[in-house]
Amino acid sequence: MSDHSEIFSLTGSEISHGIDNGIFSSQEVTLAYLSRIREVDEKVHAFLSYDEDDMLRQAKLSDQRRASGKSLGPLDGVPVGLKDVISVKGQPLTAASKILKDYRSPYDATVTVKLRSAGAVVGGRLNLDEFAMGSSTENSAYGPTCNPWDLNRVPGGSSGGSAAAVAARETPFTLGSDTGGSIRQPASLCGVVGMKPTYGRVSRYGLAAFASSLDQIGPFAQTVEDAAHLLEIISGHDPLDSTSYPTDVSSFSKILNEPIKPCKLGLPKEFFGPGMDDEVRKSIDEVIQWYRQKGYELVEISLPTTELSVPVYYVIATAEASSNLARYDGIRYTTRSEKAENAIDVYAKSRGEGFGQEVKRRCILGAYGLSSGYYDAYYLRAQKTRTLIRDDFDKAFAQVDAILTPTSPTPAFKFGEKSEDPISMYLSDIYTISTNLAGLPGISVPCGFTENGLPVGMQLIGQAFEEGKLLSIAHDYDRELQFGRKQPNL
Amino acid sequence: MDYEAVIGLEVHVQLDTKSKMFTRVGTGFGQPPNTLTNPVVLGLPGALPVMNRDAIEKSIKVGLLLNCKIADICKWDRKNYFYPDMPKNYQISQFDQPICEGGEVEIEMPGNSPSEIGSHRIVQLTRIHLEEDVGKLTHYETDSLVDYNRAGCPLLEIVSEPDLFSPEEVFAYLTSLRNSLVSAEISDCDMEKGQLRCDANISIRPVGTSTLGTKVEIKNLNTISGVRNGVEYEIRRQTKALNEGETIIQETRRWNPDQKYTTPMRTKEMAHDYRYFPDPDLMPVKIDSEWVEFIRKELPEKPFDKQRRYMEEMNLPYSSTSALCGDRPLCEFFEEAAKLSKVPQKIANWVVNDLLRELGQAGKEGEERRGLQNCPVTPQHLAELINLIEDGVVSNNVAKELFPEMFISGKSAKTLVEEKGLEMKSDGDEIEDLCAQAISDDPDAAEKFRGGKEGAINALKGSVMKATRGQANPQVVDETLRRLLS
Which of A240, A331, A379 sits opposite B277 (nearest CB)? Predict the structure, then answer.
């Protein structure tokens, strides 16, 4: 083992390569990560739980498969951590909420099934904002996750645990979910790659829903190449999810090395206005320079509905959430209030005690927008505006191959800095939200650091179901600059 | 003042599908509690609905059967409210775009006697929509138990216009609807099993006026007689209230079948805001005309159309048709037998009397009424028996005795007649001897007949039939006796 003490610093592909060439075994890899978790997770708190025995059992089976020449592919034996909203049979699923404190999922999500068929070691449960509602992981009922680059700062959210775990090298791969930026924003704040696929690309079956028409599961990794590998495995039509799209999955990892030339990148002028941190602007300017030097054509485009995306999002997402979260009621598998004396009490007190502030705020907001007399003014109007936002992107993609923006207007902020002001927190998703409303794929790629050593991420947005093209453009940059390979001191 | 009632019905029908509305879990009645469940039925985190195609097809079939307009798009909405029988605390239903709009149900009111046809009328429908059923709650003193076996089963809600005007019409409407749905194999419509449930909206107004009065919704009408009694009671209650100067308030009341009265459940002010919105987990489904036409081809003949055909084309008496037409397998049995015979009226008569009686008796010994699919007497057997009567091979009386034996043994009429030597005796000499014997045995009767008392001949016929154990051809016996007595 001592020979392999630095395994955790490797990328997913390097680990896969190492296992494949017999340099180390899956059990050694798994042990290395488990000891890394023990070493640093007290500081980072990326994990809500992990089942050591179960992970080592999976690793052992993987080693046995390889020994008998029956490897299931490149991911066989490689650990993958999961945001604690993705179902794994027999494992807890808390959604970082007290109301699901004692729940264990009796079934595997479709992505879990796909990971298992690829031989991955399905790993620990990662922290998040309760029910994926938030941008800082401060809304977790089990305490926040800290940014590995500065433990006094947030990792972003809601998939803060998934991003921080990769940044802290506690696991080579994780899955998160993205409803309005919940993969890309924490990836950006933690200096790792995070991707939200096209809506319908990855099955949502087994993902505890926040907002059904916006949620998508996606990968985190140190490099674009790794993210492409993981995306390839979890993608595909699923008969258990009516919103999953029946289309073939291209081999993203192969397309990666086929640069798109000529290639036009759009810079939406609405994204480059006030509100963007100067250091973020500087990093993005450098990205623009890099692409220009490589022969990409960069053009200014306009997405006029950009300013509408935050209000539209908060009407639609909260409306869906108010209904999706109704099932957590203290009746069946959720924690029942001990103070409940009658049926109404069971609902009111269990939910009152079980949900945190932000979840309650959004459920009330959402129910209001759907109420009779308000439906037309809020929900229906938001849906119509959503169509306009989608049309804006359609027009833009008639001119360009991908859209380049910062992922987040600021680098990681300090704990408490925005948590008292929901609106300023909501605005930290301003660059990511419209992608979800339009159902498009988006990826955040590390593109530098501030003077204080905080990571900055750029976002590339692509056309629906054109993940291959998007990954190729992102990889062209990432393989040369490799900001995601830089490791924080912990 | 004289009042008339105006009634609209909301009928819930469980569709007879193999699996539930949005997941591959079986449906069924009487299974151990909470065994027909899975993550989707229980509304576990992450579970998602996927539409059952068969339920859509059956709904389209109902729409075609009841002359509805079939929607171009099948769209789903969530109806949000908290109740422990609903695992997700929302029900997937259809709000503003039901799968069927309009439509009609033909009803028949009772005639002056069971053998006389009653008046027919069309009752207008508002809409039909598809939704998922909820679980079943059982309340105890301090606890309630819930069984989710029924939760998620496809449920069709058939909403009528306020177009029914008496408890009798309500009864006729439900009977007709049930006959149509059962004959189209949509549902068994067994109210005891909750496969058909009914809520009634009732208002009354002075006779001769056309404005609708304040409506009251009655729930828990769980049997057909319960519906009739509940509606009857509520009309009486409202009439009494208005006559005593009270006003009717818009509310929902519950029918208590044991005490036979309705009690308030909730008023209009307490009504839920269901916060309907399109279900983002389900894509709308296009229903194109090709699909509709494909289903139209499988539509069975409507029960009343069949009844008219039987009466007009096959000359069946009304009483036979009314016994047949609510039961599609029985009609199929009849039609198959009738094809092999020249006297469909007789076939019908035997089917509705003898066949149904034997099936019923088989049930008394066995566990339940023996289904027609297991009936040992085939349509061919019945037709053959009737043909034997028509051809004069056996008498009607012998046939009546043979039929139960055919039912038990499964043997054909011809086989039994041959085995038992039951052919009718038409041999002149033998019958003449027996007739002469009868006259000499009962000179009294012979004298009376000769004296003009026509009925006296029956005693003589009876003794000849007795002597031949019913096998003598009655027509030959009659002729011979008259000749000998003249």
Answer: A379
Contact B55, B154 (CB under 8 A): yes
Beta-sheet strand order (sheet of B77-80): B90-93, B77-80, B277-278
Q: Are A163 and A190 in contact (CB under 8 A)?
A: yes
Q: Is residue A484 part of a domain?
A: no
Tell me the CA end-to-end span of chain B in Å, nearest whole number: 73
A182: preceding bond cis by omega (within 30 degrees): no
Q: Residue B374 has what DSSP assignment?
A: G
SS3 A214: coil
CB spacing of B275 vs A241 below 8 angstroms:
no
**What does the pLDDT read at residue A404?**
98
CATH number at residue A54: 3.90.1300.10
Task: Tell me which chain A residue has its CA closest to the CA of residue B22.
Answer: A240
Flag whether the ipTM exceeds 0.90: yes
Quick one: closest CA in B to A325, which residue?
Answer: B88
* Distance (Å) from the alpha carbon of B199 to chain A's nearest alpha carbon: 24
Chains A–B, number of C-beta pairs less than 8 Å apart: 98
Catalytic, out of A25, A162, A182, A337: A182
B50 contacts in chain A (CB < 8 Å)? 239-242
- Per-residue pLDDT of B58-80, as tens digits, reads 999 999 999 999 999 999 999 99
Smallest Cβ distance to A243: which of B144, B275, B281? B281
Lowest model confidence (mean pLDDT) among A305-319, A385-399, B367-381: B367-381
Q: Do A327 and B43 touch (CB under 8 A)?
A: yes
Query: Is B49's CB within 8 Å of A241's CB?
Result: no
Count the helices and strands in chain A (H runs, E runs): 16, 11
Mean pLDDT across A343-369: 96
Which residue in the set A105, A239, A326 is minimally distant from B90, CB to CB? Answer: A326
Structural domain for A32, as ranges: 2-260
Question: Where are chain B's structural domains?
Answer: 3-294, 301-420, 428-485
Q: Is B49 on the interface with A (CB under 8 A)?
A: yes
Distance separating alpha carbons of residues B243 and B13, to the nearest angstrom? 37
Any A CB within 8 A of B47 CB: yes
Q: Chain A residues with CB inside 8 Å of B42's CB?
A: 332-333
Q: Which strands sit side by side in the sheet containing A193-196, from one edge to the other?
A: A47-49, A121-126, A79-83, A173-178, A216-221, A193-196, A442-449, A455-461, A402-406, A264-268, A297-301
Side chain identity at B469, as an amino acid letter? R
Least confident of B196-210, B319-333, B364-378: B364-378
pLDDT of residue B370: 56
d(CA A131, CA A48): 14
CATH architecture for the domain at B428-485: Orthogonal Bundle (1.10)
**How high is the pLDDT of residue A265?**
98
Helix/strand/coil for A410: coil
For B142, nearest residue in chain A (alpha carbons): A342
Q: Say which amino acid occupies B420.
A: K
Inspect the interface and report whether the beta carbons of A329 and B82 lie closer than 8 Å: yes
B366 pLDDT band, cuts 50/70/90, is very low
CB within 8 Å: B39 and A106:
yes
Residue B25 CB partners (closer than 8 Å, separation 6+): B19, B36, B37, B38, B40, B41, B152
User: Degrees (nearest 5) of the Cα angle A392, A398, A400?
Assistant: 100
Q: How far apart are CA B66 and CA B428, in angstroms?
A: 61
Which two structure tokens, joined as six digits, stand for A137?
A: 């992981």
CB distance A323–B273 less than 8 Å?
A: no
Domain count, chain A: 1
Query: A140 catalytic, yes or no?
Result: no
B485 at A interface, C-beta within 8 A: no
Please say whether the beta carbons of A197 and A235 come within 8 A: yes
Tell me whether residue A320 is in a domain: no
